[in-house]
Amino acid sequence: MATPVHETAAMIAGMAPVRDPATWHFCTVADAAGAALHFPEALAIFREAEGISLVLDAQAAARHGFDTGLPMARITLSMHSALDGVGLTAAVARALAGAGIPCNMVAAYHHDHAFVPLEDADRAMAVLQDLSQRGAP
Question: What is the pTM of this model?
Fold first, then answer.
């Protein structure tokens, strides 16, 4: 397993963004029992006061009748960033915002993931590849 990277410039330079070919949807379920039915298909699950958020692929979201009005692409930052590393999420969000691209960041143990509207995915990849090549915010 790779050693987590802590240094900001190294995280940015080594992020190696990769686009997932799947289409994803952020969905919500009000109660835990209802949400549990979707856990096996969910890429991500997060409990909030208002309900349980699920990230489902397009087929699962449509099959279960969730709103599919905002299809998202997932871009994984392939480098193993440290959980206590500082600046990677901010740099990615700032670069995408500067290009007018909305993003929802999801940080997991090994990698960070930027979810962007599907229509902006190619442009987002170009922005993140440029940011990585520059190696600084």
Answer: 0.92
